[in-house]
């Protein structure tokens, strides 16, 4: 009996019970595939709303292993007010707030060792000027700054995530014109310098890094310079390049469990499927705008992908595609509002996404509407959910809503 008790105590100490949540980065993991290990509510209702001093519309909340929720202050006007990060308790009360009025934050990310990372740029800036970008390491438990590392003399966009962390706590970060790898203690392992964007006069728009399933390869999409790069995660050396000019407003490469990559191109209205070595497996030309399109990988061999209509009044479409060949299995039309909320798939295969008219939708794996709930404001704005994805923990969903160029709010949706 004592032996069994000792084994139980050992397991509790070294293999603690499942945490209430873990959504450490935009799209849920460093492969950016939008998969959740949790299930959402079957009969949803709004539990609480947090407004603070205004929540940034162009980002998604993060969830720590202890259930702490991290959100960023700001507006969809990316040059104004993005100067603070909140840590909230699961009931919506503030745990701490980290504020730097002289900086503009990009969406943060969590590492396994309990560090919250954020790329930040000096606030008093107009695009076209040279401006220093920094990587901040913040203690996620206390909100205290651990260290601050200079990355680049150039501006970093605040409307996309630039960070990926591996299971060891190593982080890969794009700041200004530099992609760098850092050890958990802040040591910089390597840097890769990108080209300047001739059309912009400052560091080119590039997506955040994406990790391969074995964490040995970094995929990096150069939005202005054109092309997809695969770099060795240990050394930063280029493994291969794909010169196709994939062009998107927000999307990073998405990696499936088998290592396949999915990359959209808004110019040709095409979703590409690539092998881990960069060869094109298939491509699907799909109706609609692909500006804010993120593929997500379901458990049954299905990809889910969204496009927008030209006019935001006309909504957009959710496509279910066969991951083997890109053939359309089904499509679901959302009739109103921007479709710029990256979808999330729960452990039961249900698909969640927001629409610009302020609704959160839940679809079944065969493309039927299970439920929808209004989480936005009673206003005519059709951009109320833009780049915020539904984030699941237990049977609670968190999403940011609010008119794009104004202050947003964090909404928690739970079981009725």
What does this molecule look like?
With 416 residues, this protein is mostly beta strands. 3% of the residues lie in helices and 41% in strands. The strands form 9 sheets. Strands 6, 7, 8, 9 and 10 form a 5-stranded antiparallel sheet that branches. The protein is globular and about 50 Å long.
In short:
By secondary structure, the protein is mainly beta.
Spans of 5+ residues with little confidence (pLDDT < 50)?
A: 1-20, 197-202
Q: Whole-Å distance between the termini?
A: 43 Å
Range of strand content: 35-45%
Count every helix, treating DSSP H or I runs of 4 or more residues as helices. Answer: 1
Helix content: under 10%
What best-fitting shape do the alpha-carbon axes yield?
globular
Rg, nearest Å: 20 Å
The structure class reads mainly beta
Mean pLDDT: 86
Largest sheet: 5 strands, antiparallel
Could you tell me the number of beta strands? 35
Write the layout of secondary structure elements.
Blueprint: H1 2-14, E1 44-55, E2 62-63, E3 69-72, E4 84-88, E5 94-99, E6 103-105, E7 109-110, E8 115-122, E9 133-139, E10 145-152, E11 163-165, E12 171-175, E13 178-182, E14 188-193, E15 196-197, E16 202-203, E17 210-211, E18 217-221, E19 228-232, E20 238-242, E21 254-255, E22 261-265, E23 270-274, E24 280-285, E25 296-297, E26 302-308, E27 316-322, E28 328-334, E29 344-345, E30 351-354, E31 359-363, E32 369-374, E33 391-393, E34 396-401, E35 408-415
Antiparallel strand pairs: 1-35, 2-3, 3-4, 4-5, 6-8, 7-8, 8-9, 9-10, 11-12, 12-13, 13-14, 15-16, 17-18, 18-19, 19-20, 21-22, 22-23, 23-24, 25-26, 26-27, 27-28, 29-30, 30-31, 31-32, 33-34, 34-35
């Amino acid at each position: 009996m004592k032996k069994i008790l000792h084994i139980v105590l050992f397991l509790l100490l070294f293999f603690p019970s499942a945490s209430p949540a873990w959504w450490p980065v935009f799209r849920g993991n460093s492969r950016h595939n939008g998969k959740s290990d949790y299930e959402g509510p079957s009969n949803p209702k709004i539990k609480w709303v947090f407004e603070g001093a205004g929540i940034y519309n162009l980002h998604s909340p993060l969830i720590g292993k202890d259930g702490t929720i991290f959100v960023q202050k700001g507006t969809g006007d990316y040059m104004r007010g993005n100067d603070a990060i909140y840590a909230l308790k699961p009931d919506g009360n503030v745990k701490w707030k980290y504020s730097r009025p002289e900086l503009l934050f990009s969406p943060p990310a969590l590492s396994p060792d309990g560090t919250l990372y954020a790329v930040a740029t000096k606030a008093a800036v107009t695009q076209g000027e040279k401006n220093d970008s920094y990587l901040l390491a913040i203690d996620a438990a206390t909100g205290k700054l651990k260290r601050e590392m200079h990355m680049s003399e150039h501006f970093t966009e605040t409307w996309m995530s630039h960070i990926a962390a591996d299971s060891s706590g190593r982080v890969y970060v794009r700041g200004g014109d530099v992609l760098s790898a850092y050890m958990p203690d802040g040591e910089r392992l390597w840097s890769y310098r990108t080209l300047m964007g001739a059309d912009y006069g400052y560091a080119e728009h590039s997506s955040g890094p994406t990790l391969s399933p074995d964490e040995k390869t970094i995929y990096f999409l150069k939005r202005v310079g054109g092309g997809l790069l695969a770099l060795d995660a240990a050394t930063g050396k280029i493994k291969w390049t794909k010169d196709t000019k994939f062009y998107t407003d927000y999307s990073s490469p998405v990696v499936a469990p088998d290592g396949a990559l999915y990359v959209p191109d808004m110019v040709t209205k095409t979703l590409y499927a690539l092998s881990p070595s960069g060869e094109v497996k298939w491509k699907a030309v799909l109706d609609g705008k692909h500006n804010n399109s993120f593929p997500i990988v379901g458990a049954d061999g299905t990809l889910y992908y969204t496009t927008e209509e030209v006019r935001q009044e006309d909504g957009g479409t959710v496509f279910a595609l066969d991951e083997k060949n890109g053939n359309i299995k089904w499509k679901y039309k959302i009739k109103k509002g921007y479709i710029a909320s990256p979808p999330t798939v729960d452990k039961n295969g249900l698909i969640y996404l927001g629409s610009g008219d302020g609704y959160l939708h839940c679809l079944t794996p065969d493309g039927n509407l299970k439920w929808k709930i209004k989480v936005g404001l009673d206003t005519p704005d059709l951009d109320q959910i833009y780049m915020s994805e539904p984030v699941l923990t237990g049977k609670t969903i968190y999403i940011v809503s609010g008119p794009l160029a104004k202050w947003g709010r964090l909404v928690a949706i739970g079981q009725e």
